[in-house]
Amino acid sequence: xxxxxxxxxxxxxxxxxxxxxxxxxxxxxxxxxxxxxxxxxxxxxxxxxxxxxxxxxxxxxxxxxxxxxxxxxxxxxxxxxxxxxxxxxxxxxxxxxxxxxxxxxxxxxxxxxxxxxxxxxxxxxxxxxxxxxxxxxxxxxxxxxxxxxxxxxxxxxxxxxxxxxxxxxxxxxxxxxxxxxxxxxxxxxxxxxxxxxxxxxxxxxxxxxxxxxxxxxxxxxxxxxxxxxxxxxxxxxxxxxxxxxxxxxxxxxxxxxxxx
Length: 260
Hints:
The protein has 260 residues and is α+β, with helices and mostly antiparallel strands. Helix content is 50%, strand content 12%. The chain folds into two domains: 4-126 and 237-259, Beta Polymerase, domain 2; 129-233, no CATH class. Strands 3-4-2-1-5 form a five-stranded mixed beta sheet. The mean pLDDT is 90.
């Protein structure tokens, strides 16, 4: 979790009403490479879902307040915060990066309040075919970005050096394979397997440049073909119930306010 002194100095007050907090990114996937390693391009990625005080949503000035999303880099930490309404909205759209926050291993959460526990208990109900299609779309995007580079965050220089060394963005390549493998797990089991115990070593090999670009593309195409054959057979609903989303949102907010 974020050291208290860094949080107090760098995060706005509204982000501190967390109901759910944990690892995201490589820590959550089990593919973290410490920054002491020469080929490390990993931050310590942390997410948090917050329910702000009741007056933020209901007070006279609530229409002026738009704090829904905040991301910042604090040293080696990449911190992402969502207000509960934004979080539920992204779940309804099938955003894979948000859905996986609800499927971490228990030990990868730092904080789960009663409201957070209630949110987690509905994680299966949030799944729909939108999630499956988003996984496929995100994977294709990462495949393209392997050779169309963007350098963000404090790892930009190190990541650029790896691109120059290996001829492609190894981290995006690993993201592509992970997204496809996770989507296949969802199609086969109905669950999102975030911690990649089965193929974690493969992902680390790719991320550290031990696979050629052609080998990555060949493997990605193989997984994509399997994905395209299984996706039409999914029994998940086309979309999630709007009423269910509203009910869960209101219940989570009420639970959070009682816990203050």
